[in-house]
Amino acid sequence: MPKLNMVKALNTALFEEMARDPDVLVLGEDVGVDGGVFRVTDDLQRKFGSQRVIDSPLAEAGIIGTAVGMALYGLKPICEIQFSGFAFQCFHQIENHAARYRSRSQGRFHCQMVIRMPYGGGVRALEHHTESEEQFYAHIPGLKMVIPSGPRTARALLAAAIRDPDPVIFFEAKALYHAAKEDVPDESETLPLGRAQVAREGGDLTLIAYGAMLRVALEAADVLQTEDGASVEVLDLLTISPLDRATLVASVAKTGRAVVVHEAPRSFGPGAEIAASIMDGAFLSLEAPVRRVTAYDVAFAGFAREKATVPDVPRVVAAARETLAF
Amino acid sequence: MPRTLLEPRFQVEHLSILDSEGTLDTALEPKLAPDELRALWRAMLLGRRLDERMVRLQRQGRIGTFAPLKGQEASQIGSVAALRTTDWMVPSFRETAAMIWRGWPIERLLLFFAGYLEGGQPAPAQHDLPVTIPVATQLPHAVGLAYAAQYRGDDAVVMVYFGDGATSEGDFHEALNFAGVWQVPVVFVCQNNQWAISVPLKKQTHSRTLAQKAHAYGVPGLQVDGNDVLAVRVAAGEAVARARAGQGPTLLECITYRLGVHTTADDPTKYRSEEEVAAWERKDPLTRFRAYLEGRGLLEAGLEETLDAEIAEAVRRFEATPPADALAMFDHVYAEPPAHLVAQREELARRLAANPAAPPADSDAVPPDATPMRGQRLTRR
Ligand SMILES: Cc1ncc(C[n+]2csc(CCOP(=O)(O)OP(=O)(O)O)c2C)c(N)n1
Ligand SMILES: [Mg+2]
């Protein structure tokens, strides 16, 4: 089992899926010669050629629009949008078309495609390079919205996303790209989309997180264990939409208390849907209101002040304590 | 029915006055006053010196990622110099030199690149928009500004900057088309620096020139040697004059080259050759203009030192003025903050009060030697 960081794990999945299926191709800005600005597509062009790994002109709508056409023909494009902040330039192609062709054509056509984008903070970057926008995609019927939390889930979920017959928005936390290395099996593996994982078991409170916030939740759980003797369960959502309500409800039915953590701004964010789902499924088990620890409702705080808005361990611990004491 | 040829015939003019060998076309040489020539040189040199200083500041973790302009000084200064202060300037993200010409204080730009929102605030009377990062999205804004100026009966002209890669985005085409249909006073300045990160021009477009894209929209488009500040100044002056006279928009394609990295996070050795860079270094816009000024006896002695001192003073001011605390992030979200934002601001205020030592500070500043940055050459001139 080699130890890989998340960039390398994603790169491995791309190699494996392209080798496995000649219909899989990659397109995006700087994905070929440069190997992507984060090097996730490094060496793919050398191996598979410039017909399968395409340095596109600088046009997000062009990338997604042509990928929709390729998918309608039966290919399985993997598009890279350089930063999630630049996906608004192709939002119409995603919402109007990629998400709807199956239903518009009543099953005759569909778009098997993956749209990868780096998202989130932690890299001291300018506007449009640090935001978290998963809520926009999670809200769109017909799309799947996936966010891995480390190298192993990244590799397995990317493979699953590429093989999934529906369009998948695949967010990669920039803060995790070079963070920890993890053992990743030699053999290709997949994880089911739409399924959350219990990252840590506990009985007193459920922390719900995904992407770069999983680490924050796990560290907060450690603090709560050592300082408060609280046994905290941590759920790693992995897929934001379709949301794994069964796992969510089962956990909260057991613990009776829940705190959701995300990097996206609070209002109308994933936390709201998660809280509502818990209310729907576990209302009678709840001992306290579901709390959210999220970024504030500001478009961009400036990276110098990012730490004041992105959830950190002390904020999660404080919210968990209030929930435990409710 | 026969096949008939329609009237439009597309030809693209290329303007060059002072070439890289220092050869001057005296018939085309503009009659600029010595003071203006000296001002152009000063601004180009300041742009170059500041650029190199900022690369070092980034390497030391004192500012974040930024996009150097080295090699594009003539394109920026030759064009922006054609504007009046009452005209409008709409930058993308690489226009540091042009922004300074327009009166942005250096320390404010440094604040911007250090990740503080305050760095994006234009001065009250300034007719300048802040940096726009999403490629090409500022072009329609320029057309809207120009429409509004015309609507109000102001004689302001709008100049908007973007790169070669930007011409692939839909916003570029929509903006040109609107400008053509509306015949508004806007000058589109494309700095064709041959690369959009790792993508060379030939993979960006199958067109021979970028200037010709304007012709499809019924807008004049011409190409100019973007490393020749005299040619850029002449072409921009004509375009601005036409716009001001009510004769509509122009697209100016400045042929230039990004001598440095795309941004301080980029490694150009991955995608372009040393030879290519060296060939363009021989066409450096500063070299030929310096020789021209020298020939005319217009070079000021000691200007480098003066500019370096000016930059050092600005860096000192930037570092001496601690920005406001993190609560500033809530300041300009709405005209009137709604209740939920007031509550969030109060929550942050409580957190900051409980733990004054904690962030806002940008506590993650990278240590000086953290990011190896290949491909950025520092030159002294
Ligand atoms: C809409 C959008 N897509 C992608 C990016 C990422 N990006 C930043 S600059 C750049 C290349 C721009 O090339 P060009 O227009 O030639 O300008 P240059 O950087 O050469 O000045 C890219 C792809 C972005 N900022 N905005
Ligand atoms: Mg360019």
Structure, described:
Chain A is 38% helix and 19% strand. Chain A has 326 residues and is of the alpha/beta class. Chain A folds into 2 domains: 3-183, Rossmann fold, CATH 3.40.50; 197-325, Rossmann fold (3-Layer(aba) Sandwich). In chain A, the strands form 3 sheets. In chain A, strands 3-2-4-5-7-6-12 form a 7-stranded mixed sheet, sandwiched between helices. A 5-stranded mixed sheet of chain A has the order 9-11-10-13-14, sandwiched between helices. In chain A, helix 1 packs parallel to helix 7 (151-163) and helix 9 crosses helix 13. The N and C termini of chain A lie far apart (45 Å). The relative contact order of chain A is 0.12. The mean pLDDT of chain A is 98. With 381 residues, chain B is of the alpha/beta class. Chain B contains 13 helices and 8 strands. Chain B has a 6-stranded parallel sheet, with helices on both faces. In chain B, strand 3, helix 6 (170-182) and strand 4 (186-192) form a beta-alpha-beta unit. In chain B, helix 4 (106-113) packs across helix 12 (303-320) and helix 5 (139-152) runs parallel beside helix 6 (170-182). Chain B is globular, with a radius of gyration of 22 Å. Chain B starts with 13 loop residues before the first strand and ends in a 27-residue tail after the last helix. The chains are: A alpha/beta (326), B alpha/beta (381).
Which regions of chain A have little confidence, pLDDT < 50, spanning 5+ residues? none
Cα-based radius of gyration of chain B, to the nearest Å: 22 Å
How many helices of chain B in DSSP terms?
13
Distance between the termini of chain B: 65 Å
H/E series of chain A:
EHEHEHEHHEHEHEHEEEHEEHEHEHH
Broad shape of chain B: globular
Mean pLDDT of chain A: 98
Question: Helix- and strand-based class of chain B?
Answer: alpha/beta
In CATH, the architecture of the largest domain in chain B is 3-Layer(aba) Sandwich
**Strand content of the residues of chain B, in percent?**
5-15%
Order of helices and strands of chain B: EHHEHHHEHEEEHHEHEHHHH
Shape of chain A: globular
